[in-house]
Amino acid sequence: MKDLRNKVVALTGAGSGIGRALAVRLADEGCRLAISDVNECGLEETRALATNRMTVVRSYHVDVADRAAVRAWARAVEADFGGADVIINNAGVVVSDTLADVSYEDFEWLMSIDFWGVVYGTKEFLPLLHRRPEGHIVNISSINGMLPFPFNGPYNCAKFAVRAFNETLMMELRDTNIHVTSVHPGGVKTNIVNSCRFVRNTGPDHATFQAAFNQVSRMTAETAADKIVRGIRKDKERLLVGADAWALDFFARLNPRFTHKVTAAVFEWVTKKHSPF
């Protein structure tokens, strides 16, 4: 099993949720951390939590949708740490709307973070990883990269794209010093839905959507982070996080059409259950 002590880990989306939990968990492993986020207040809180583990932590204000900013961050990490051993592209957002109604601007905003942010982070850190005896790329997709949910089209598209990106990397880097882990969490209790861009005019309102998500999301960010770190240490290529992720992936491969119908029906039932009307 891989030893992560003293490894330099660059991590996006560290200001809250799984990103924060990963920073703390990796600090416990003895990693040196280069954490980033656009949320400076949340990022500072994470830095303080990770630093309490007696490791080196530097924080960077980075918008992962900005290619130049990600490139500058990679160069800063090289200057500050002498390189990087692991890049974890975790930053993500949600837009809730139908594909018919979602604006181009909201669709592009989500893709710029959830997909292009992963591409930028991977490509800008690849040269640093190649210089190490062993490098590791960890890109967070989702169970929605295997099974789409209704009213979640832009996110579904981004996560399917991240999955394809990861699997292509695995083939292209198979004979190199770099490992790739494609992470597919199920429902995790984070603020991603609570803080999503909710612009839908049909179906359940934002509060109902939040309540439904929070009910079906059983796993904590800390548990998810623990599973991801163990997956990194074991050089897992495909990492399903949560019993719901395992179940949905199994049924989606067994009978895709039936699973799509059931998923839509369950989503409708759960949101109606929480609706005040």
What does this structure look like?
The protein has 277 residues and is an alpha/beta fold. It has a single domain (8-274), classed as NAD(P)-binding Rossmann-like Domain (Rossmann fold, 3-Layer(aba) Sandwich), CATH 3.40.50. It has ten helices and eleven strands. It has helices spanning 17-28, 40-51, 67-81, 104-114, 116-130, 153-172, 206-216, 221-233, 243-254, 256-274, and strands at residues 8-11, 32-37, 57-61, 86-89, 95-96, 135-140, 178-185, 188-189, 197-198, 219-220, 238-241. Strands 3-2-1-4-6-7-11 form a seven-stranded parallel beta sheet, sandwiched between helices. The protein has a two-stranded parallel ribbon with strand order 5-9. It has a two-stranded parallel ribbon with strand order 8-10. β1, α1 (17-28) and β2 (32-37) form a beta-alpha-beta unit. α1 (17-28) packs across α8 (221-233), α4 (104-114) runs parallel beside α6 and α7 (206-216) packs across α10. The N and C termini lie far apart (53 Å).
Features:
alpha/beta, about 280 residues, Rossmann fold, 10 helices, about 15% strand, 11 strands
Record the strand order, biggest sheet. 3-2-1-4-6-7-11
Shape: globular
How many independent structural domains? Answer: 1
What structural class is derived from the secondary structure elements? alpha/beta
- Uncertain segments: none
Number of E-state strands = 11
| Residue-averaged pLDDT | 88
Relative strand content: 15-25%
Overall CATH architecture: 3-Layer(aba) Sandwich
Main beta-sheet annotation? 7 strands, parallel
State the end-to-end distance: 53 Å
Which homologous superfamily in CATH is the superfamily? NAD(P)-binding Rossmann-like Domain
CATH class: Alpha Beta
Give the C-alpha Rg. 18 Å
* CATH topology call: Rossmann fold
**What percent of the residues sit in helical stretches (DSSP H or I)?**
40-55%
User: What order do the SSEs take from the amino end to the carboxyl end, as H and E?
Assistant: EHEHEHEEHHEHEEEHEHEHH
Number of helices: 10
